[in-house]
Design brief:
This protein has 405 residues and is an alpha/beta fold. 44% of the residues lie in helices and 13% in strands.
Length: 405
């Protein structure tokens, strides 16, 4: 990956070179795209706007966060100040000039939630300078069963996407770093298609979703993010289509079941409330158990850290109810498995003593009795001592019919 032209004013070059301090936003470089022409669709897709107070016609400025601007050379006015740009034009724009002599962001919890829906890659490297994508998701061709409902989080999984979660509000530069990962992946896919002598439709290129615990008006406006309440709920911000980058402000999401899986990634009261909702879900919900386990692992990892910050101590308190519920479930599951194993041994020995051996039908009888209540199990056990084989099979058949009805 290479840059066509990179320019540093001498003062800035000295400021950056060997400087160990962070760089102020205003000193970060801008990208200028010099296009011989630019259609309205291209301009609107990236929310480029004319700024006639500071620039001439043909110079289009993006929302400030992107630090990306475009010059449509064929739209420049024919004045001496635009000469050196118009030389780079095309057709008549260039022809009239040639009389003058001139001439290349951002785990275990989500992986567990998203895996049923498709292929998840964590810490995927992209070409160029080594960067890692937190989550790269590709949906499976056949959706999973409807019991696995991720709500709003599931809605962003309709197509390939990069997911970058932030514990704190991202800076402008962090958003751009995430976008750079997206553009690198898109370039990879386009180069592969070119090698295979095919092309990729714009709609199949992956999108970037930034999951931020919060997002200020300044951050949202800097990238031209907008609410789209016809298609999304409040808290979900969509960028101009060309950027293929969207942001979810988790603290702005409505408190509904559809946002639960995102709010668990929130902060403070947002996360605390989501944890309590998670605990209240039915134990039969498979996503509940996955999430409880991951939250518990997170809490355990935090507790073994030294020199905890106040924020980390508060986080441990918020995660504790989920950890306690998960531990209780694990113990209950262990006791249940122990009871079932004990019953299985008793039943197999009883039936083997009565009928010499266990065929498939008798093994199925054993399996069908493992989950009975204590009273039902005791009553059935007494009957097994006296009934014939045929009567036992008929009894189990009748019991199964009652349970199904």
């Amino acid at each position: 990956m290479c840059v066509e032209v990179i320019f540093f004013p001498s003062g800035l070059q000295r400021k950056i070179k060997g400087n160990q301090e962070s760089i102020n936003e205003i000193y970060l470089p801008n990208l200028w795209i010099l296009a011989t022409s630019a259609s309205e669709k291209l301009i609107n897709s990236f929310c480029f706007q004319l700024d006639r107070e500071n620039w001439v016609k043909g110079v289009y400025i993006s929302p400030v966060g992107w630090k990306t601007n475009l010059i449509a050379i064929n739209q420049l006015p024919i004045i001496p100040e635009t000469l050196w740009l118009r030389i780079l034009g095309k057709g008549k724009t260039q022809k009239n000039m040639t009389k003058q002599p001139h001439d290349q962001f951002a785990k275990q919890y989500l992986k567990e939630l998203l895996s049923p829906f498709g292929e998840v890659e964590i810490s995927r490297e992209v070409t160029g300078e080594v960067r890692q994508i937190d989550i790269y998701f590709s949906p499976v061709s056949k959706p999973p069963n409807s019991d696995l409902n991720l709500g709003v989080l599931g809605k962003i999984l309709w197509s390939d996407c990069l997911i970058e979660p932030f514990r704190n509000q991202p800076t402008l530069n962090e958003v751009r770093s995430c976008a750079l990962k997206l553009f690198s992946v898109q370039s990879e896919l386009q180069r592969e298609a070119k090698r295979n002598k095919t092309s990729i439709n714009e709609i199949y290129l992956p999108k970037l979703w930034i999951l931020a615990t919060s997002a200020s008006d300044n951050l949202i406006n800097s990238f031209g993010f907008k609410l789209d309440l016809e298609n999304w709920i409040s808290g979900v911000y969509i960028s101009p289509a060309g950027w293929k980058t969207n942001l979810i402000a988790i603290n702005q999401l409505p408190v509904t079941p559809e946002t639960l899986w995102l709010r668990i990634l929130g902060k403070g009261k947002t996360q605390e409330s989501a944890i309590l909702e998670l605990i209240d879900l039915s134990p039969e919900n498979p996503l509940r158990n996955l999430a409880l386990e991951q939250v518990s692992i997170w809490k355990t990892n935090l507790e073994i850290k030294q020199d905890l910050t106040n924020e980390e101590r508060e986080l441990i308190m918020n995660l504790s109810p989920a950890y306690l519920k998960w531990r209780e479930d694990v113990r209950q599951e262990g006791r249940q498995e122990g009871r079932q194993e004990e019953r299985k041994i008793v039943l197999e020995n009883l039936l083997k003593t009565r009928f010499s051996s266990l065929d498939q039908e008798l093994l199925e009888v054993v399996e069908s009795l493992l989950n009975l209540s204590a009273d039902e199990y005791a009553q059935i056990l007494i009957q097994l001592l006296n009934l014939s084989r045929e009567e036992i099979l008929e009894l189990i058949k009748n019991e199964s019919s009652k349970q199904n009805n």
